[in-house]
Amino acid sequence: MKSEQDSKAGRRHHDRAFKQELVRQSLEPGASVSAIALRSGINANMLFKWRREHVRAAGDAPPTVLLPIEVAPASEVMSIPTSTGPAPSPSRSAPRNGVIELEFAGAQLRLRGAVDEDSLCSVLRALRQSA
User: Fold this and answer.
1) pLDDT tens for residues 39-57?
2) Is the dihedral of CA 90, 92, 95, 100 positive or negative?
3) Residue 79 burial (C-beta neighbours within 10 Å; 0-12, 13-18, 19+)
């Protein structure tokens, strides 16, 4: 039995076997929860809820993985200007903002903002030769 209509609440009630089968299908590698829900005539959010309940009840939640980090005091960080040449021509696409951080030969290099490839290669060559 797929579902029954409850005349009082206006909600469908799905039997346990139906829920378990959809949860099993959704936990298969590469399965699309949305496609399974659509094919079965239910909302994908409902299937996600059933999956959460199943994982919680089974205790199958994967352990939380903490990644190691190292925080360097600001006094140990040396900034190097990234661009010494002329400004990039307007025909190039707009530079991307961001940060590149490298640890090399016991030093930390942090490049902020737009970094052109030639400048980065020059800095890396100089670091390699000094190591």
Assistant:
1) 999 999 999 999 989 888 8
2) negative
3) exposed
